[in-house]
Amino acid sequence: MADRAHSLAVSDRMFTRHGTGLFLLGALALALVLLGPLFLDRFTQNVLTRSMIYAMMAITVDLLWGYTGILTFGQSAFFGAGAYATALILTHIGGGMQNFALALALSVILPMVLAALVGWLSFYHKSTPLYASVISLVVPIVLTQAIFAGGSFTGSSSGLVGYPVMKLGAANYFRLAGVALILFAALSWIIVRSDAGRVLVAIRDNPLRAAYLGIRTQKVQILLMTVLGGIAGLCGFLYANAGRIVAPEIAGFGFGTQMIVWTALGGRASIFGPALGAIGIDYLGAQLSGSMPYVWQLIIGVLFVAMILFVPRGLVGLLPRRKHSGAAPALVALPDQRQESGRDALLTVSGLRKAYGNFVVLDGIDLKVRPGELISVVGPNGAGKTTLLRCLSDGTETIEGNITVVDKDIAGRPPEDIVALGIGRKFQVASVFESMTVAECLRLARTTHERPSLWHRASTIELPSAALEILALTGLNKKLGEPVSGLSHGMRQSLELAMVVAMQPRLILLDEPTAGLTKAERTLIGEVLKRLTQNLGYAAILIEHDIDFVKEISQRLVVLHQGRLVMDGSVEEVVNSELVRSIYSGMAHD
């Protein structure tokens, strides 16, 4: 408890230090919002009220696209749903406190339901980012057509106007929109810089590795889209009241595209860039549309192209990049946990067959792995070794036969479900998070054990001693605050191995874990793997081409040739086998 309290205290101090600039900026913005109506004319107040509502919409797009990698044109549909829910209630039922409360509730709930449906359609297993973008294109079009077909009920192409609204006045609507924008921007800034915010960036950078760390990427994406759909609906409620008119265009594809432009021009993954981009472009458009009614959109378009060509990071790209700063988190050793003992199989493979059309990659594979075993899979290139690991770690692969982990059939289970069963996988090419630091990657590896906070970053990382050994022997423990993009190939390999070990899986699948490492580093990695299996009871399946390394650490060797398991035995039996020698010499025949 004392260590935890100290950790939170240090984290709070770090947050306070980094949040000072945000506080000062927020205080200045709040003063401008509260005092603005004293020196702004009514037209400017109305325009900036709308612009600040649009700025909140741009932030929702930034959270989806900039931070999570979901390019969506559908936020306009949720905004339009909220605005129309408000206008329809006030038009057909009337004003009054109860009806305003009903309109507010529906303007949030209906877009959230719609967003949840869109999220479910977009992020089912193995859906692609392109598919999600297409879905987000279709929804605004369908909603706009529904508004057109609504006749007098929805106002059709003319929209709804003249309904009762909250009697706040232009000045107070300006203040309300401004305060809402400041609060939402500040909350978003805090969240994206928290440990939970790093999960969003992980999904953007490398969704496959995120899934193989046990992060349920589809659930996170659906939940985020649902919440931000509600925020968009709330913006629609403010818009319908402040503007006193709703039209089909606010729910359409064109408006959704505008939000993408605002976000790109302001600067993705920056929160404040898209907000300033939305305010600046909308206000500039309002000023130019009167004096240059046919030219101002062309000016905006040219500005957009110029920014993309010369300042691809948007307006925030004009500012100097902030280097990773702050004290590196402390590494805390977890007590070693022995895995379950006994000789019951941890993994059982029966009659595994994997084919792509007529091309058979694996055929009739039978294999059992028990706790404490370190099994190396060897064979020439193209034998099916990596495909075997993929089948063991992803139950959605189309196969024949059965694969069970601790007596549970993995058929149909996505990687994150198999991680929950105790399987960890290291890829052949190091799969890490390029835009993060070493420490952030390690913290993400602990996500299934420690729920990440929405409000701060932990100042310590608890890791099993084996992961700490890997970090120490490769020098990564001295590079915790450095970005992964600056690491050598060998260090990336070591980092990914440390991430897998940090998950504390029952069975570790390793695809060439020592590629790019020096001989000394390989020896030390071998010692770590032997300690994990022989002393702590972990199981491991290793693919490795360095036969000397394999002989030193393995208990069993499995030989694959042309997709078939041709030998499974002790190291001595396999190494001295004439069959294996003939396979490697290219003399074996079917």
Structure description:
This protein has helices at 2-35, 42-67, 75-92, 97-122, 129-149, 169-192, 195-205, 207-212, 217-243, 253-266, 272-291, 296-310, 385-393, 415-420, 438-445, 465-474, 489-502, 519-535, 547-553, 571-575, 578-584; strands at 160-161, 245-246, 330-334, 347-356, 359-369, 374-378, 400-405, 408-409, 423-426, 460-464, 507-511, 539-543, 556-561, 564-569. Helix 18 links the parallel strand 11 and strand 12 (539-543). 55% of the residues lie in helices and 13% in strands. The protein starts with a helix and ends in a 6-residue tail after the last helix. 47% of the residues are buried. The strands form 4 sheets. Strands 9-11-12-6-13-14 form a 6-stranded mixed beta sheet, sandwiched between helices. The chain has a 4-stranded antiparallel beta sheet with strand order 5-4-7-8, covered by helices on one side. A two-stranded antiparallel sheet has the order 1-2. Helix 16 (465-474) runs antiparallel to helix 17. The protein has 590 residues and is an alpha/beta fold. It is built from 21 helices and 14 strands. It folds into 2 domains: 18-318, Orthogonal Bundle (ABC transporter involved in vitamin B12 uptake, BtuC), CATH 1.10.3470; 334-584, Rossmann fold, CATH 3.40.50.300. The radius of gyration is 29 Å and the shape is elongated. One of its GO terms (molecular function) is branched-chain amino acid transmembrane transporter activity.
What's the short story on this structure?
The chain is an alpha/beta fold and 590 residues long.
